Amino acid sequence: MSEETASSASPAKKKESLGWMEWMRGWSSVFGEILFQRITASHLQNPLPLPPVNDLTCIVTGSTSGIGRETARQLAEAGAHVLMAVRNTKAAQELIQQWQNEWSGRGLPLNIEAMELDLLSLASVAKFADTWNARLGPLHVLINNAGIFAMGEAQKFSEDGYEQHMQVNHLAPSLLSVLLLPSLIRGSPSRVINVNSVMHSVGFVDPDDMNVVSGSRKYSSLVGYSSSKLAQIMFSSILFKKLPLETGVSVICLSPGVVLTNVARDLSRILQFLYALIPYFIFSPQEGCRSTLFSATDPQIPEYWETLKNDDWPVCPFISQDCRPANPSEESHNTGTAQRVWEKTLELVGLPLDAVEKLIEGEHVKCRYGAQEE
């Protein structure tokens, strides 16, 4: 065998990180969004006008603060039935009462409720999905908004044993999206909206080391956060391919822009001070929720979804902070890695590899974290 033949027969070297050009382009996207998001989004009204949503039932995770709070409030005031899926139901009930009081005299009472959901517990996610599906009603919009970026903190793990960014930002929302498919299909046409981040552009996912514990990469909160956001896009892209057009269920990822949210509370005092000095560049939560509301309600989104599916586009639809279609990072187009992320994610959240296909056919799917059947 010739040296050339032997070389071509050897397995390809495993990619262990972004190339330096990918890394540079990624950070260029990040700083470009920080510096120019107000200019690129200057055509948008604030708040964003919404089309009629009276017939929509929407679940919004992480809706007691920041972008999620504004999203839930504006959808409810526009007439949608909104369920706040939150860890602190007491805080949610207090918000609901406050919003009802402020809305009094302006129309019918807001159709809004709260239910407990702790994304740091996959058992809580499975219980939430079972409780909602048991209503046997339609779900039109699932907004996976909740997320964490524990800036500067040491590596932490959930009660399920997974790195906290990966669990809250990717694993738990993925499990929720799959388990709620029966309700989403009943609500067809429906949408799964994933609030992502431009930070996915500097992320890298090793499906064999999603907890970042092997030592091949040094852990930092930036690594944890950006990796989880890239994993979310990759998983969503495979879900995008697996859902037939006939289901009427669209999957969209989006960037809200750089937003002044509770992420800042995790910063050091000096960084919080600096963060507060650049309000011109940073969106308020009301501005930051516009791409979420657009993705959840714009009537052209299903048509855009269908166009990409028919063109066999490798990644799911991605909406930028200016409410325009955008192309996510080069690494997000790595279909081989995306498939492995899909398979590893289903394994970690305790679902069979054919879970989506079974749910589409109306079959029952057992989750390892769900209630144990007797």
Automatic annotation (TrEMBL):
GO cellular component terms, semicolon-separated: chloroplast
Sorted UniProt keywords: Chloroplast, Oxidoreductase, Plastid
Keyword Electron transport: no
Location relative to the cell: Plastid, Chloroplast
Xref: Gene3D superfamilies: NAD(P)-binding Rossmann-like Domain
GO MF annotation list: oxidoreductase activity
Family: Belongs to the short-chain dehydrogenases/reductases (SDR) family.
Protein name, per record: Dehydrogenase/reductase SDR family member FEY
The species this protein was found in: Raphanus sativus (Radish)
